[in-house]
Amino acid sequence: xxxxxxxxxxxxxxxxxxxxxxxxxxxxxxxxxxxxxxxxxxxxxxxxxxxxxxxxxxxxxxxxxxxxxxxxxxxxxxxxxxxxxxxxxxxxxxxxxxxxxxxxxxxxxxxxxxxxxxxxxxxxxxxxxxxxxxxxxxxxxxxxxxxxx
Length: 149
Description:
Helix content: 25-40%
CATH class: Alpha Beta
Number of strands: 7
Strand order of the largest sheet: 1-2-3-4-5-7-6
CATH topology: Aminopeptidase
Shape: globular
CATH architecture: 3-Layer(aba) Sandwich
Oligomer: single chain
Distance between the termini: 18 Å
Number of helices: 5
């Protein structure tokens, strides 16, 4: 079973190595992700950190969800459950929308977004963008959310 725990600042380098070594320097990455509108949580499996969920506050009641996983560590069904739990917590806390931006080549991330009930809103030559609102979330997952409580 997957669990979340707050990511310590010194653990950000591992996330960088999974996520962006080809895109920017670690210093730039760490500076950008250390701003106050970011929160990071390590994804744990049996005591091992296998990924990270980062939440980027994009408005007073909206955030962007970023998921970074150790290569070949993704377990879609378990990750879906974890993300749905995060979504429920965010929506119960007053958020109205969760967005994500996925590289077009990342088919597993696109599948995960769709499995979580997100819908594609737009795309450009590099990224596809997905969204789920609070109303859509509870309309689709109402029965599952009730069972979780």
